[in-house]
Amino acid sequence: MAKVYVTRKVQFNAAHRLHNPEKSDEWNRRTFGKCNSPNWHGHNYTLEVTVVGDPDPETGYVIDLGDLKKLVNEKVVSKVDHANLNLDVDFMEGVLPSTENFVIAIWNELEDHIPSGQLHSLRLRETDNNSAEYRGE
Ligand code: NI
Questions:
Q1: Is residue 48 among the annotated active site residues?
Q2: Minimal CA–CA distance to 46: which of 85, 15, 13, 6?
Q3: Number of folded domains in the chain?
Q4: pTM here?
């Protein structure tokens, strides 16, 4: 047994607004700053999807990265790219679209559909400097 971690990276852009409707406008402005801007703003996101498993003896693959690309495109990228995370995305309905909440929601979309190996981690980068990693825990 030799566990190997393989990663597929995808990129997309999406709009959002961080706003907690339970709180005052002042609280939202103070807490979220520019991300509370009323007329939305966008980010260029990068998502790294890591699957762990033993390489298959016949293919040498943990997972066919072409299959993983198709899955991530179907379940995530096709729904979020050039979309508004607050308004357009079924799996983000009612979710405050922070990087943290977004990466958890993406995990829930992918977890049960990985054809071989196991989903190990997702790293979602909102900017070059800011990212969130989730391991399903
Ligand atoms: Ni933002």
A1: no
A2: 13
A3: 1
A4: 0.96
